[in-house]
Amino acid sequence: DLAEQVARQLTRHDALDAHARDELGISIHNRARPVQAAVASAASFAGGAALPLAVAAVAPLPQLIGWVIGASVACLACLGALAAGAGGAPKGPAALRVTILGALAMAATAGVGALFGTAV
C-alpha cells in the first residue's frame, strides 16, 4: 500500500522523467548538451590542426607535404591517447585506432583530390 502511494507521488508530475531518473539513472545533469558538444568539437578540431599548420609555416618547401603528413599523424596519435586517458580507456589501442583511421581518411582525401585533379 505504501509503495503504491510513493509510486503515485513520484510519477504524479512527470512519469517519464521519474522513470528515466530512478530506473535508468538519466537526469537533467547528464543529458546531452549539443551546444557544449559542438564547441568542444570545434576547439578539438582547431587544436588538432594547430601543430600541422605551424609545421607548414616553417617546413622547407620541397619537403612540405611530408612534414605536414608526419605532424598530422603524430598529432592523431597524441590526441587519441589524450582522449583515451580522459575517458579512462587504454591509451595504446585508442591512439593506434585514431592514428590508423585518421591516416586512412587523409589518404582517401588525397586520393579523391588526385582523382578530380585538385591534389597539391
Low-confidence stretches: none
How many beta-strand segments?
0
Cα-atom Rg, whole angstroms?
A: 24 Å
Give the overall average pLDDT.
Answer: 86
**Gross morphology:** elongated
Q: What's the main sheet like?
A: none
Report how far apart the termini are. 75 Å
Assembly type of the chains comes to single chain
Helix content: over 70%
Provide the β-strand percentage band. under 5%
The SSE string, one letter per element, is HHHHH
Number of helical runs? 5
Structural category:
mainly alpha
Question: Would you kindly provide a written description of the structure presented here, covering whatever features stand out?
Answer:
- There is one protein chain.
- By secondary structure, the protein is mainly alpha-helical.
- The chain is 78% helix and 0% strand.
- The protein contains five helices and no strands.
- The chain has helices spanning 2-12, 15-22, 34-58, 64-87, 91-115.
- Helix 3 (34-58) runs antiparallel to helix 4 (64-87).
- The radius of gyration is 24 Å and the shape is elongated.
- The N and C termini lie far apart (75 Å).
Key features?
elongated, 120 residues, mainly alpha
Summarize the structure.
The chain is mainly α and 120 residues long.
Task: Outline the fold blueprint.
Layout: H1 2-12, H2 15-22, H3 34-58, H4 64-87, H5 91-115
